[in-house]
Structures are given as structure tokens and as C-alpha cells.
Amino acid sequence: MSTTDEEASISTRLEPENYGLTTAEDIRRRDREAKESKRLSDTWRKIQGEDDWAGLMDPMDPVLRSELIRYGEMAQACYDAFDFDPFSKYCGSCRFTRRHLFDSLGILDSGYEVARYLYATSNINLPNFFSKSRWSKVWSKNANWMGYVAVSDDDEATRCRLGRRDIAIAWRGTVTRLEWIADLKDFLKPVSGNGFRCPDAAVKAESGFLDLYTDKDTSCNFSKFSAREQVLTEVKRLVERYGDEEEEELSITVTGHSLGGALAVLSAYDVAEMGLNRTRKGKVIPVTAFTYGGPRVGNIRFKERIEELGVKVLRVVNEHDVVAKSPGLFLNERAPQALMKLAGGLPWCYSHVGEILPLDHQKSPFLKPTVDLSTAHNLEALLHLLDGYHGKGKRFVLSSGRDPALVNKASDFLKDHFMVPPYWRQDANKGMVRNTDGRWIQPDRIRADDHHAPDIHQLLTQLHHPSQLL
């Protein structure tokens, strides 16, 4: 075979239509027509789970798919912006300032402004989750950046597209290291013991998740307040500012992948339990959690309490992902009801919450069919699967043209004949820059405005004493 023939053969194998990019154009056309006829601004309450997504997942509603990908990308931003490099003095922090997060990641026209960064103390027993620098002089010895709170902006195009103002909370999880699962104590404890305003001591959550969410280090500027205190006070501030706008409705959407999915469920529940989704005029703001590859968080009473509070949860999972089956590997919602009733009080009897959208990476012609624990848990792979999912038993056809190369950003999951290098996302020169003297250095990062909240003490006082909310 000549070189030209071989190149033509390779080109043919890589043609998009052979892998679902432009095949079944009628499917994509129907998707576009359905999306155009049913705008998000008109249907956002259903997309946020008003009817528990009945009839929207099979066949897959194109507006719901688009929103799941969008909120998934908000969670992915937590990975793309995180400094994982142990040779960086800023390891464990965000690489970008709050005001420029989305622009720095190339997420242009996001329609959101980051209102606050979230931090947690690493002084808890999750050594395989937290990242720490090897250097002695570091930005913080005991804190890690955990995500952010953002709010949709005042741009007319954003308001028309969303149909409301949206407060979005995004939590960081884990990219490839799954050892944190083994670190979990796999032990349920009452949420009321961690300061939650819960009237029922039978409502329990996994102790490691609770510790991560509620612990603080008063000696550290970044984790002086717990992640819980940071997120609740910011939600309170934003609801007070926007909750009673006459011409605009408000929603609260929480997103996260992996362990970040657990924090998303926990914080969504907490916001509702604290009554922060009620405005001063008594208007109820819908609270929704979109999680990706998230683990079980609490017991069956925790699940029931979330339902009582009206919090909606949609879990997007890869059927081959072990994280979505943990903790509670044996005693969970799939066990016989009689057994669950007997074991309900045990500290390792778990239950998933909300609705599930199960996906299968073996249905994608782009991905390797082998089951590897870390790749099956990959968020970019989940977003790729969402893009090609049209319903149970339906053909895998990419809908938005989202680049499959993103899957290999932090994994080796794409089939080799696509010739996309694994783990291709790298910082130029490992973040080193040349100064005016021609020397290579790690530049300082301005962080002052990324955690400073002058009114947090007052807001916390009001949270602890509800009478002061009036």
C-alpha cells in the first residue's frame, strides 16, 4: 500500500460519520428542532426537577442534556483550575483569581460571576483526597480549594436564556485517585451532631463527608470558617440580594463530581434544612443537585428528609463506576425491604437519593471498552456519554459536537486510533515564567479577594439565631 493509500485509509477510519459525529443526521436534526421548540427559559422548572424529570430521560430531552453538560462543565472547572502539582508552592489552591476563573479556563460568555471561593481544612482523615506542596513555604499548610459559588449575571442574553437568576455551587472531587474511598470510615452519624438544624436524630450521613464539610482550622486564613459556613453565608447573602426581585425568579443549583457529588447533596440538603431557600416574602426557591459519579451520602432517613424538604437530586453515573456503588456496598437501597427495615439503624446502612441517569461507556464507539476503575469514574467521559445518549437501547450519536478529545484531558480512555495523547492537559513550563532579570520563577498569585468576606461574622450570627433573619 502506498503512503497516499495508507493516509486515505486512516482518514477514512477517522471520518466522523464512522463514529457517530454526523451519522444519523435525522436524530440530530430532531434534537435541534425539539430544543428550538422547547426553550430552557420556558421549561427550566421541569429541567430543575419539578416533576422528578418524568419523561425527560427516555428518550433524552435535548434541553436537559444540554443543562446536564453545562453544570457538569461547571464541576469540571474545579479540576481544570486546581493546582495538583506538589512542586508548586500553591499546590492545593486555585490557579486563577475569582474574578477571572471562567475566562482563564476559556469558558467565555458563561453568563455567571464567581461570588466566592470555597475552602476546606485538610486536617481530617482523607489523605488521598487533599493535595499538598512539598515545599516549606506554601500558600497554606492546612487548606485546599474546594470549589466556588457563582451567580448568573445581569446580561439580557443570560436572563433570556436561563429564564431566571441562578445561584450555582460547584464542588471539587477527585480526578483519578480513588484511594479516598478506602479512607472513608464508612460510618454513619447524625447530621444534627455537626450543627445541622435537623429535628430528627435518625437522619444520618457518612462521617467523613460531614467532617470535610463542617471542620475548620481557626489558625488558617482560608479555612478559618468551615466549608459549610462559607457556602451557607454566601447563599444567604445572594438570596437576600436577589430573592425578592419582582421581575425575576431564582433557583439554587448545586453540582459536583465524585466526592464533590457527596458535598453537593449534603449542601443542597443543608440549604433547604436551614430554610435559606425561602425569601423574606416567603417565596420558596427550588434547590436542585446535579451530581456526576457521586457516592451514597446518608441513610434511608436522610433520603426521606431530602424528599420532605423538596430538594431534587439527579445522579448521572457510569454503570461501571465503583464510586457510585459506595459506601454501603451490601446494605443499601437495593437490598430487600425487609432486610433494610431490620438493618436500618446500623451505622453502615446507606441509601442513594433522588433519580438516576445510568450511562454505559461501552456504548460509545470512541471509548475503550475495558473497565478501568479510574477511567470509568472520569467526569469528561461522563459528559461525553451524555452528549451521545438518546435513551435506553438507542444509538450513540453525539448531539452537540462536543470534542471527544476532552476525554483524554486527564485519562487514557479514548481508543488509540483517534491518536489523542493521554493526559494531554499540561501547564506550560509547569507554571514557571521568566522575570525581568531573565530568571525562571514561580510567580506569586494574588489571593486577597478570593476568600475575604467581611460580613461573614454577621451572617453567621443570623444563621445561628434565626430571629435575626427577620
Supply the number of helical segments. 15
Largest β sheet strand count, sense and barrel closure: 7 strands, mixed
Distance between the termini: 80 Å
Radius of gyration from CA coordinates: 22 Å
Name the poorly predicted regions.
1-17
> What percent strand?
5-15%
In which range does the helix fraction lie? 25-40%
- Total E-strand runs: 11
Shape: globular
- What's the order of the H and E elements? HHHHHEEHEHEEHHEHEHEHEHHEEH
Q: How confident is the prediction overall: mean pLDDT?
A: 87
What's the arrangement of strands in the largest beta sheet?
A: 1-2-3-6-7-8-9
What is the structural class? alpha/beta
How is this structure best described in words?
With 470 residues, this protein is α/β, with parallel strands linked by helices. The chain is built from 15 helices and 11 strands. It has helices at residues 3-13, 25-37, 40-47, 62-80, 101-104, 156-162, 180-183, 207-214, 227-242, 259-273, 300-309, 337-343, 373-376, 379-388, 456-464, and strands spanning 112-121, 143-152, 165-171, 188-190, 204-206, 250-257, 287-292, 312-318, 355-359, 433-434, 440-441. It has a 7-stranded mixed β-sheet, sandwiched between helices. It has a two-stranded antiparallel sheet with strand order 4-5. A hairpin with a 5-residue loop joins strand 10 (433-434) and strand 11 (440-441). Helix 4 runs antiparallel to helix 14 (379-388). It is globular. The N and C termini lie far apart (80 Å). Mean pLDDT is 87; it is low at 1-17. It is found in: Plastid, Chloroplast. Residues 25-35 have a biased composition (Basic and acidic residues).
